[in-house]
# Entry
Amino acid sequence: MNENSAREDDINLLREIQKNTGKNLFALENLTGKVYDDNFALMLTRESFKYGELHDRAKAQLLAASRRPEPENRVDRLILSASLNANTLLNTTTSRLAEMMIKTSSDGLASLWKAMNHNTEAGEKSTELARELMDFEESNIRELKKYL
# Structure
C-alpha cells in the first residue's frame, strides 16, 4: 500500500463525509421552518445535531492531516435551496418533508458508497467515520418512513 495514495484516499473520503453532512445540515435548516408536527421537528433536530457532530469530526481529521476542509460550494447550495423551495411550494405536509429527507439521505448513502469504493486505501479512522455516517443515514431512512 502506497502511503501517499492511502493519505489521499483518507482526504477524499473525509471530504465526501464533510460534503454529505453539510448538505444534510443545509437541507434540515431549510426545511425546519416548514415543520408543524412536534415529534417530526424533534426528530429532525436530533438528526441535525448528529450531522453536525459527524461534520465536525471529519473536519477535525482533515485539519489533523494538515489539510484544509472542503470549502462550501455556493452554487450547489443555491441549487439545493431552489430544489427544496420548489418541492415544498405547494406541499409542506409532514409526509412530503419526510419524503424529501429520505431522498437526501439515500443520495448521501450512494455518494458515500461510491467514495468508499473509489478510495479503498483509506485508513481505519476515516473509514469508521464513513460507516458511522452510513449507519446513521440508514437509521434516519427507517425513522423517516414512519412519517410517510
